[in-house]
Automatic annotation (TrEMBL), chain A:
PANTHER family: NITRATE ABC TRANSPORTER ATP-BINDING PROTEIN, TAURINE IMPORT ATP-BINDING PROTEIN-RELATED. This is ABC transporter ATP-binding protein. It is found in: Cell membrane. The lineage of its organism: Bacteria, Pseudomonadati, Pseudomonadota, Alphaproteobacteria, Hyphomicrobiales. It comes from Sinorhizobium medicae. One of its GO terms (cellular component) is plasma membrane.
From TrEMBL, chain B:
One of its GO terms (cellular component) is plasma membrane. The chain crosses the membrane at residues 6-27, 39-56, 88-107, 131-153, 182-203, 209-229, 236-257, 269-286. This is ABC transporter permease. Keywords: Cell membrane, Membrane, Transmembrane, Transmembrane helix. GO terms for molecular function: transmembrane transporter activity. It comes from Sinorhizobium medicae. Its main location: membrane. Signal peptide: none annotated. It comes from the Bacteria. CDD domains: TM_PBP1_branched-chain-AA_like.
Amino acid sequence: MINVENIQVVFGKGTPLQKQALNGVSLIIEEGSFVTVIGSNGAGKSTLLGVLAGDVLPSGGRVTIGTTDVTRKSTASRAGLVARVFQDPLAGSCGALSIEENLALAARRGESRGLTPALGSKRREHFRERIADLNLGLENRMGDRMDLLSGGQRQAVSLVMATLAGSEVLLLDEHTAALDPGMAEFIMNLTQKIVSERKLTTLMVTHSMRQALDFGHRTVMLHGGEIVLDVAGDSRKTLEVEDLIAMFRRIRGQTLDDDALLIG
Amino acid sequence: MSQIAFWGAVELGLVYAFVAVGVFLAFRVLDFPDLTVDGSFPLGAAVTAVLIIAGVNPWLAAAVAMVAGAAAGIVTALLNVRFKILNLLASILTMIALFSVNLRVMGKPNVALINADTMLSPFYGLGIRDFYVRPLFVGILVAVAVVIVWRFLESDAGLAMRATGANSRMARAQGVDTSRQIYLGMAISNALVALGGALFAQTNGFADVTSGVGTIVVGLAAVIIGETLLGARGILIALIGCVLGSILYRIAIQVALSTDTLGLQASDLNFVTALLVTIALILPRLRRGGAA
């Protein structure tokens, strides 16, 4: 479960570039629920994800993951609760390490790391099986450096990495944005499969409204650091991309009107 | 080149293999350009020499030297991690401070270890000639160190350190405390370099405050020569490359200086070093260029 209460995030406080990235955002995501987050550039999507991951520490409010208050915890110290796949395929794995070394690294996420060989035969076999499940033929390339893989292959391996160690939540940060349409579809289907098989509490930030409506149980739209739409259940089923775009326009129009009023 | 000169070069290469492995850990594993080694090498020599003269067991003296080296590495890490000083600058600050520390430790610019018992004393006079004993002894220690560092880097803990250097953001997302890894890595790296210094003092019979000048270049030269010769094929090969590079570097220097036709003198050493490192840096590029 994720419980975000009245989160405030301000970037560049006290400078001319001061920006309120999140303004009193509250959100409860139940155990096993899959929430998609949309919004235009600068709406606060990435900041919200950063607050959950620990990269951004809020100036106000409270963040609880599972039963742990993580508001002040660093990224590393909350890693046992949070699994994450980045937008940039290069960011989520170590290019200089082999596929199996990356998996070994992820398998100990949030746990102590001792002097046990990282790649014992038992672990190797386990990793191989998990990678073979992807049907990408990567199980025969376990010793290859990660940077020899394509972006899509890296994202697929990153998804496996995210599920090797237990976690309370899975955070997906536009993880198909850098991929070609075919690979993006493959990764989304894989995501769907993994999330439903493992009943993961998932928050996915996306640029694609289609994705936002097609996947998950609930869709949240952010604008100007605030939640402007939160739909789930039947009302979400009937929602179409056109409806979302119309809402997007309306919200933007409103802000334009506001600006016009101010200037006038 | 005489046999004695040749084995002397091998011996010196093996002593500096500790430096090469330390530099490999800092530069390649942690991606931390660390110049502390120019200070921690003579620190290791100074601590060992002073302790041996005070009657301390030479093995214990070497162990204390390693602790001193580790402390130097931790100071550099502290300046960088805690106080956000640029890594290269942080290491230069520690290096410059260590020059004074080393003078304090020894009380004078150099200390001689004539007739003092060293780690090698029990092995002289066993029927093997002295100029074989030294490289053999140091070589065994190097092998032990390489195996330990290799096993460490392929363990869970070592993987965390490698991830810190390769992609620190990803490492943190995997729960790795990257600051701690930098402290640990810098401590191990400089402990190895100080051990090199300790062995240098014990095999050569003296410690000198200026013996650290250029340590980093020699270490880097060894790492780069090793990489050029053996390529990137895993941790063990890379470590063996460091050792091999260090030995070949010393032999190359010895050949260059002892070839009369070149007319080089001992004072040309730094120039020859720079030239060798440059060649080692250019070679892989030329090779790649030829293939393309």
